[in-house]
Every structure is written in C-alpha cells, then in structure tokens.
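hey m, so remember when u said the tokens were messed up on ur end? i reran from scratch. heres the input so u can diff it against urs
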Amino acid sequence: MIPGQNVSNDGIETEVSIEAGKVILDGALGLPKQTNAVVLFAHGSGSSRRSPRNRYVAQVLQSQGIGTLLFDLLTRDEESIDESTGELRFNIPFLAERLKDATRWLMHRPDMRSAKFGYFGASTGAAAALAAAADMQGEIHAVVSRGGRPDLAGASLQGVHAPTLLIVGGDDEPVIGMNQHALAQLRCEKKLVIVPGATHLFEEPGTLEEVAKLAAQWFKLHLTAADKRSARIARH
C-alpha cells in the first residue's frame, strides 16, 4: 500500500495539499476508477475534513462512481483563532474564496480537465458553497446543502445557476424556515427535502443514510447523467 493512500475496490483516496492563495490546506481526494465527476465538501462551523458525517456521505458518493474532495477550509493557526473568537466560521465571503481556490486547484490537475464539479455544504459551509457557485457560473454543475444555512449566502443566492438541493431535518424547525427563505431567493433548478424525524446533525437512525441517498441521486443526475446520454448518442 502506498503511504498516505487508502485503497478500496472503488478507487484510491489520497492525502493532498491544496494551494489556496498564500496558504496550504490539507485534504483527502477520493477518486473512483474512471470517474468524471467530483464533489467538493464545504464543512460547517468548527468542523474539518474529518467530519464523520461528511466522510460517510463521501463514501456513498464514491460507491456511486463520484469522486470527492474533503479538505480543511482553515489552516491550523486559523482554527486556533476561530476556536477562541468564532470570527472565521461565519465569514462567508472568506470561506467561499477558500472553496473557489480549492476548486481551481482541482481543475488544474491533468486528470480533472474534463471533469464536472459539484459542492456539498453543511451548516455555514452551505452558504459558502452557494456563494462560490454563484461566482463560478458554468464551472459548478450541482449543489447540495445538508442542515445548511443557505440564507447566509445573502444576495449571492440569486446568482446561483447550478441545480441546488436543500436537505433539512424535520425536527430542525428554525433551520427549516431559513431554508425556505433561501429557496424562495434561488433562481436556478431547486428542491427542498425535509427528512422526517431528523434533527440538525442527522444523528437519528437512518437519517444520515437518507441524506447520502438524496445527495447521490442529485449529483448523479446533474454531474453524470448528461455524460451518459452523450455517450449513448455518440455510439449511435
């Protein structure tokens, strides 16, 4: 086994260093064999690439042939500052810029030149994902929010063109209202799904599995279905 890599039947997960402006961010890039679609994860406030919930969703996506990039939006020094002040976790423009930097880094990889990209955001990371998608029109083809705060994306919501799926827990009442408000602002293909019996972190049995299933369906539809249709047309 190559150091720093976890090999499975679905492909290889590699530890990567991502150039983001003047800093280097740690990440984990999981690429199933022959994938042509990758989803970048934007973690929520106080979380990291090691988030067990996001890692579970990433594993489900990889099992469906979709690549994933989980990475830390903050450096270790920034995490230390944020733990004390909380000033960075709600700085949506800052987080969105980091996500865009990671996206550009991924796009410049030789093996990613023909890939399609999507964003999966949780909590405040969902707002960063939507703000970044609005700025990278034509480059981001799908967005999924899990228990997110898309309302924090503000005016950027109306600039999002990528099909967007908002997933909220049925018992996460304040966040349901925030997502409904954000949904009304979006001008793209959009959908809100409320998972019955789920709270904010989807810790109840079966609820996170439902999130992963919904996300996989959305990304397969918008990141891979068009390629499969084109391939069928080309063969005929």
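this time it looks ok to me. The radius of gyration is 17 Å. if urs says something different then somethings off w ur setup not the seq
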